[in-house]
Design brief:
Oligomer: heterodimer
CATH architecture of the largest domain in chain B: 2-Layer Sandwich
CATH architecture of the largest domain in chain A: 2-Layer Sandwich
Keywords (chain B): Molybdenum, Oxidoreductase
Largest sheet of chain A: 5 strands, antiparallel
Shape of chain B: globular
Distance between the termini of chain B: 70 Å
Strand order of the largest sheet of chain A: 4-5-10-6-7
Pfam families (chain B): Ald_Xan_dh_C, MoCoBD_1, MoCoBD_2
InterPro entries (chain A): CO_DH_flav_C, CO_DH_flav_C_dom_sf, Diverse_Substr_Oxidored, FAD-bd_PCMH, FAD-bd_PCMH-like_sf, FAD-bd_PCMH_sub1, FAD-bd_PCMH_sub2, Mopterin_DH_FAD-bd
Number of strands of chain A: 14
CATH class of the largest domain in chain A: Alpha Beta
Helix content of chain A: 25-40%
Radius of gyration of chain A: 19 Å
Strand content of chain B: 15-25%
Structural class of chain B: alpha+beta
Protein name (chain B): Oxidoreductase
GO molecular function (chain B): iron ion binding; oxidoreductase activity
Helix content of chain B: 25-40%
Number of domains of chain B: 3
CATH topology of the largest domain in chain B: Aldehyde Oxidoreductase, domain 4
Radius of gyration of chain B: 27 Å
Number of helices of chain B: 20
Strand order of the largest sheet of chain B: 3-5-1-12-9-10-11
Distance between the termini of chain A: 57 Å
Chain lengths: 286, 754
């Protein structure tokens, strides 16, 4: 097993692209180290990206925010500007694992671990976040929902690294929210989850919406129909009921140790309603 | 030695105070040594290969490739642990459970083990062991296993306890029955009858520290074992028997223990580590992973219980009946029998009958878990009692008070009670402010009672007085709940000295006579009795030495408040002699001063508790939140009240986890799906409210200070108290533990659908 700590993204990409055998990228290690300890993986090469310049920074740009791949989730909560613009993304990141884990784990890692139950991903999908990918063929920007392709699988090619997650600048009267269901109060994995992102007009009517459901299919679901239900409404009771129904219907869950099909369907709708209500209030809707 | 254990009603100076525990600083600074913190020169790493199958014949195990791997020093299978149990069926089961002999009986059953120079080599070696399995049909559910069509786990098992010996083998190893009166007649007098069936899933004790040991077998046949255990003397007996050693040649030292709850009363890894060390000729350290802890150690029974209780309009129970089916894992046990004994122990009943069935399943061997078997029986009975109170139209506390057992009541399992605490705990609960606190929307309150036998057992203790007057106390009961502090208080009380002058340790098996395990809530009960006896023996010598120093008759010397005092007018001019003064002079008066005791602590008083809890249920998701929780329990006498409260709170916390989320989940393939703390959900801190406690002290007449065991009873009422609260909050009777959100939501939806 070889461990390297490159100083540039180009070097990291080169090392990954040129490696024989299995390679793993290490940022916080909250997934990788656990898997290694459990004997599930034994990578031949570990590329620690924490020393790469810029990867541990949150940058505010003219277009919005660029969150470096090595920024721990706890740091997201310390950025007042990010918290104000994207409270739903930040609350999702701050639900991962425990306080200790949040001091290490990253939203890029959470995305690339490709678990359908990842907490930050539905919030990022609802937020319309994009991933900046660097690889042997150069840079490209892709929507975050195109990164995971199934449990534990991503669309990234050999040698590719996500260097940052990009979030847009917010139009006025916008708000987002994320909720998950766990049987405990913390330190748990979502049984089902929902992220909602809304923009309102001056009268409180929803003019843009994105709704994402987690842990209800092999990947996080972006539910277009749910967004259509909300657009044009003031989030009245009828709209919320339709939202719940659409979200429940969009789920393709499984029965497993964490919950049943019926439970996930029902609670996906409940969480979507509650997250939408919270996002609406954050956008200034009454 | 004429030790009088009767309650004396003395006034206490040290007992009942709350000093800092002697093991506290080491534990909070990380200096304390637990099972995995011990190392020896030349030590190897032991690892165990486990069956991935629920039920399989082992056709052949080929270890040759593993043995050839550089760094591997020993590979063992069942062949290296020959059967020396000599017809002892229970020990044969222990042996078979440590290392499968011919058949793997559950997912996680050990089939081979290696010792290698490092963990990586040991892991690689496990992969090189080839096991040829022939898969057999399996059964993991307790009700399924009782069906005639169920796969047979052991075809040599014929149900015991039936009137006629059965002609066919079965997965039911034993039927047991308890009770008195005529239930048929009793139900005839009832105006209301509640009849229901309940299920509880299998749970693990969930101790934070995994099983760990270091074994070192010398070429001269002697051996040392450092191990995390609740009973090092019992481990010594079992290991010596399984390995064909003389007990005295095996010295076992118990480490600090990060939780046991009954799960560390049983050997799993220790005989394997000793066998590996014997074969390798080097010390072997064996530490279970959490996955192994769940798959191969511990769990309690899964159960299925039918209850029927009848009462008259005035609230008097006329008859009570229960059938209890408990899973034992793949080996015979007496778990349902204990459940059948405890089920109705809280009540004064003219007509009562309980029947228990011990059921084999392809799951790990059932082990004791804090008041083993009682919580599930209490869940079923106390749920039905609550429902019956409603039918009768009585307050559930009043209904229980009306039917509570008293001194002189013949218990449902046979004996007649002495002074007991069920009535007082119910009265205390009734007048507790918690009972009157207002409830909000979607909130419900529940209460329930619980009983546990408690145990005394064999105990041996040494009390040594140093030349400077300080006292060291060596006990043989492992300290799982603060007993070193409690026993130091008892020694200080009896000798009349300060708590700080006493230092208690847990001695190894070569330093003391045999001690039973710390189980049955016996640690403080039995070892405090032995400490009092040892202190009294030391006081006798202290008086003799004082008499010698004064040159008077020992009959004229009494011991008061830590001093020898000369009695009688002719000694009026003699001052007092302190324990320290006598100790300092001991070299010239006959040498060291010590007190020893060996006894069987009989008369462990039975224990009762009543719990109250408030729960909020989210009707849209089935999520629950424990809002408030109160424990009322009889301690006899709380030696160190903080640790008594700790036991009350700990039992309640474990019961809350069991009631709401903890369960073994098996796939159709018979494999455990959730062998880790992520998906086996014990409560985290923020899941629990501050658990309020109220200690009642109804003295145990069979202990000098009135002490009763307190460790286990606190886990008996929670399943029922929480089920009653959830049922009240959700408006639907919950009959399946754990009441996880999917089960609660399904029950609410089913009720909505009518």
């Amino acid at each position: 097993m070889r461990y390297i700590r490159p100083l540039s993204i180009e070097d990291a990409v080169g090392q990954l692209a040129g490696s024989a055998g299995t390679a793993a990228i290490l940022a916080g290690g909250s997934d990788l180290l656990v898997r290694m300890k459990g004997g599930f993986v034994e990578p031949d090469l570990i590329v620690d990206i924490k020393a790469i310049e810029g990867l541990s920074e949150i940058r505010e740009t003219a277009d919005g925010f660029s969150i470096g791949a090595a920024v721990p989730c706890a740091v997201l909560g310390e950025s007042a500007a990010l918290k104000k613009a994207w409270p739903g993304v930040v609350e999702a990141a701050k639900l991962i694992g425990s306080k200790q884990v949040q001091g290490r784990c990253t939203i890029t890692g959470n995305l690339c671990n490709a678990s359908p139950a990842a907490d930050s991903v539905p919030a990022l999908v609802a937020a319309g976040a994009r991933a900046s990918v660097v690889g042997p063929a150069g840079r490209r920007t892709i929507p975050v929902e195109s990164v995971p392709t199934g449990p534990g699988k991503t669309s990234l090619a050999k040698g590719e690294i996500i260097e940052a997650i990009l979030l847009d600048k917010r139009p006025p009267r916008s708000g987002d929210a994320y909720l998950r269901f766990i049987p405990r109060t913390e330190m748990d994995i979502a049984v089902v989850s929902a992220g909602v992102n809304l923009t309102l007009d001056e009268s409180g009517v929803v003019i843009a919406a994105r709704v994402a459901i987690g842990a209800a299919a092999p990947t996080v679901l972006l539910v277009e129909e749910a967004a259509q239900v909300l657009i044009g409404s003031k989030l009245d009771e009828a709209a919320l009921e339709r939202l719940a129904k659409v979200c429940s219907g969009a789920c393709r869950p499984i029965d497993d140790k964490r919950g049943t099909v019926e439970f996930r369907r029902k609670v996906a709708g409940v969480l979507a309603k509650r997250a939408a209500t919270s996002a609406y209030a954050r956008a200034g809707g009454k | 030695m004429n030790f009088d254990p009767r309650f004396s009603g003395r006034k206490f100076t040290s007992v009942g105070t709350r000093p800092i525990r002697p093991d506290g600083v080491d534990k909070v600074t990380g200096r304390a040594r637990y099972g995995a913190d011990f190392n020896m020169a030349g030590q190897l790493v032991g690892r165990v290969l486990r069956s991935p199958h629920a039920h399989a014949k082992i056709r052949k195990i080929d270890t040759s490739k593993a043995e050839k791997l550089p760094g591997v020093k020993a590979v063992i299978t069942a062949a290296d642990l020959p059967d020396l149990t000599d017809g002892d069926a229970a020990m044969y089961d222990v042996l078979d459970n440590c290392m499968a002999r011919g058949k793997a009986l559950y997912d996680g059953h050990a089939v081979a083990a290696v010792a290698a120079v490092d963990a990586r080599t040991a892991r690689q070696a496990l992969k090189l062991i080839e096991v040829d399995y022939e898969l057999l049909p399996h059964v993991t559910d307790v009700d399924e296993a009782m069906k005639h069509s169920a796969p047979l786990i052991n075809d040599a098992i014929f149900t015991e306890g039936l009137e006629e010996k059965p002609v066919k083998p079965s997965n039911v190893t034993k039927r047991s029955q308890f009770g008195h009166g005529d239930v048929h007649q009793g139900f005839g007098h009832a105006d209301f009858i509640v009849e229901r069936s309940f299920k509880t899933e299998q749970t693990h004790q969930g101790y934070i520290e995994p099983h760990a040991c270091v074994a070192s077998v010398s070429s001269d046949g002697t051996a040392d074992l450092w191990v995390c255990t609740q009973g090092h003397f019992v481990y010594r007996q079992h290991c010596a028997q399984l390995l064909g050693m003389e007990a005295s040649k095996l010295r076992v030292t118990s480490s600090e223990i990060g939780g046991g709850f009954g799960g560390k009363t049983h050997v799993w890894a220790e005989p394997v580590a000793l066998a590996l060390s014997r074969k390798a000729g080097r010390p072997v350290k064996l530490v279970m992973t959490r996955d192994e802890v769940f798959r191969a150690s511990g769990p309690t029974s899964a159960t299925s219980v039918d209850v029927r209780i009848g009462a008259r309009k005035d609230g008097t129970i006329t008859a009570a009946e229960a059938t209890l089916r408990y899973s034992c894992g793949p080996y015979a046990g007496s778990w349902a029998e204990i459940g059948a004994m405890t089920a109705f122990a809280c009540y004064r009943l003219d007509n009562v009958k309980t029947v228990g069935y011990e059921v084999l399943v392809n799951r790990p061997k059932t082990a004791a878990y804090r008041a083993p078997s009682a919580p599930m029986a209490a869940f079923a009975v106390e749920s039905a009692v609550d429902e019956l109170a409603k039918e009768v139209g009585m307050d559930p506390v009043e209904f229980r008070i009306r039917n509570a057992a008293q001194e002189g009541t013949r218990s449902s399992y046979g004996p007649v009670y002495g002074p007991i605490g069920i009535g007082p705990t119910l009265e205390a609960a009734k007048s507790h402010p918690h009972m009157k606190a207002p409830l909000g929307k979607n909130q419900g309150r529940g209460m329930a009672c619980g009983f546990w036998f408690n145990f005394g057992g064999q105990t041996c203790t040494d009390l040594n007085i140093g030349m400077d007057g300080s006292v060291s106390l060596a006990v043989g009961t492992v300290d799982v709940g603060g007993s070193r502090a409690s026993l130091s208080l008892v020694a200080a009380e009896e000798l009349g000295i300060a708590y700080e002058q006493v230092k208690a340790i847990v001695a190894d098996t070569s330093s003391l006579g045999y001690n039973d395990m710390t189980d049955g809530s016996r640690g403080t009960f039995s070892s405090s009795m032995a400490t009092i006896s040892a202190a009294r023996n030391a006081i006798k010598i202290l008086r003799e030495r004082a008499a010698q120093m004064w040159d008077i008759s020992v009959d004229d010397v009494v011991w008061e408040n830590g001093h020898a005092i000369a009695k009688g007018e002719k000694h009026g001019n003699l001052g007092r002699l302190s324990l320290k003064e006598i100790a300092v002079a001991s070299g010239k008066t006959g040498g060291p001063i010590a007190g020893h005791s060996e006894l069987v602590a009989d008369g462990a008083g039975v224990s009762f508790a009543t719990h109250i809890c408030d729960i909020e249920v989210d009707p849209e998701t089935g999520a629950t939140r424990v809002l408030r929780y109160t424990v009322v329990q009889d301690a006899g006498k709380a030696v160190h009240p903080t640790y008594v409260e700790g036991q009350y709170q700990g039992g309640a916390a474990q019961g809350i986890g069991w009631a709401l989320n903890e369960e073994y989940i098996y796939g159709k393939d018979g494999r455990l799906q959730n062998p880790g703390f992520l998906d086996y959900r014990i409560p985290v801190c923020s899941d629990l409210p501050m658990i309020d406690t109220q200690i009642l002290e109804i003295p145990n007449p069979n202990h000098p200070y009135g002490v009763r065991g307190v460790g286990e009873t606190s886990i008996v009422p929670p399943l029922a108290a929480i089920a009653n609260a959830v049922s009240n909050a959700a408006g639907v009777r919950m009959t399946h533990i754990p009441m996880s959100p999917p089960r609660i939501l399904a029950a609410i939806e089913a009720k909505r659908a009518g």
